[in-house]
Write a structure and sequence with these properties.
This protein is an alpha/beta fold. It has helices at about 85-100, 110-125, 145-155, 165-175, 185-195, 220-230, 240-245; strands spanning about 5, 10, 20, 25-35, 50-55, 65-70, 100-105, 130-135, 160, 200-205, 210. Helix 3 (about 145-155) packs across helix 5. The longest helix has 14 residues, at about 110-125. The termini are far apart.
């Protein structure tokens, strides 16, 4: 059930939208997630690999493996003055390249220094843009069962797309089972897919460019409403504030059904096509005052 894709990753620096573009010119907006499977820096030939794997999830919940790093004997941090990077250095590099929504990092006793180094490096580099979660493997099931639980259905419906030159990942997928040699790359793929979700609220303009579509346009400025009420010696639970907090407007409609415009602190909320009165609407048997209010 392996599918292949070819193309490149792009990021619009102005809008922050990330997408992949195929050789045919098709563009697909994506959310990016990175799975991290740290290993020890042992030089033994049979030691595990440290893997960082980036995926993109499109609007149809298809998974595209963008890139991965697979290295043995990778330290936590690189040595200053030497051309050698550690796994935390690569995490910052992937964050700069792909701007992922989340890094999902395996949380074991051996990986504790990785989290400490990430926090320390964010302070040192003045870069607090890394969003990560520490994911414990758990003891209730084996690693193989955990990987299968996350990835089996995605592969079954043909929702995972690899590039043809990603040989290590292909080999681990095709030999997946009790006799496989290494499972570090497919494990990182499972961590990347653990909390992956499609890109939402993206629309395409007539000129072909993408933009983020806000589902709630011009929300009521509660801060200005609160300031106005305070200036009149009222609380937000009185006058206009009570039905507003309860989800009602002066015309009896719910704010779950309409999109009010920003009044900029004015004493009136204008709902297109509806009349408005300064009198606060109160539904039947509605008491705007909390118990003990005076």
């Amino acid at each position: 059930h392996i599918k292949y894709w070819s193309g490149n990753f792009y990021k619009d620096e102005d809008t922050g939208i990330k997408y992949i573009k195929t050789p045919e010119g098709d563009e697909k907006p994506i959310n990016v997630f990175v799975g991290v499977d740290p290993a020890t820096d042992s030089m033994r030939r049979d030691s595990d690999f440290s893997v960082l794997l980036a995926i993109g999830i499109d609007g149809d919940n298809n998974c595209y493996v963008l890139d991965y790093l697979r290295k043995r004997s990778l330290s936590v941090l690189g040595i200053p003055g030497e051309d050698k990077k550690g796994i935390v250095d690569y995490i910052f590099e992937y964050n700069r390249l792909y701007d992922p929504s989340l890094f999902c990092v395996e949380d074991t006793t051996m990986s504790k220094p990785v989290f400490q180094a990430i926090n320390a490096e964010m302070r040192r580099r003045n870069d607090f843009t890394i969003k990560y979660t520490a994911e414990k493997p758990g003891n209730r099931m084996s690693k193989r069962d955990r990987i299968q639980e996350i990835l089996a259905q995605r592969f079954a419906i043909g929702g995972v797309h690899l590039k043809k030159d990603q040989y290590d990942l292909q080999r681990e997928i095709m030999t997946f089972g009790p006799r496989m040699g290494h499972d570090d790359t497919i494990d990182a793929l499972a961590y990347a897919c653990k909390y992956a979700h499609p890109a939402k609220s993206l629309k395409k303009k007539k000129d072909g460019t993408w933009y983020k579509h806000n589902l709630i346009k011009n929300p009521v400025d509660l801060r200005s409403q609160r300031s106005r009420a305070k200036g009149q010696g009222q609380s937000l639970n009185s006058s206009l504030g009570a039905p507003l907090a309860a989800g009602y407007f002066s015309n009896g409609r719910s704010n779950r059904d309409v999109n009010p415009i920003d009044t900029g602190g004015a004493s009136q909320i204008d709902i297109p096509g509806e009349g408005f009165t300064d009198e606060a609407y109160q539904p039947p048997n509605f008491n705007p005052c909390p118990p003990g209010y005076t």
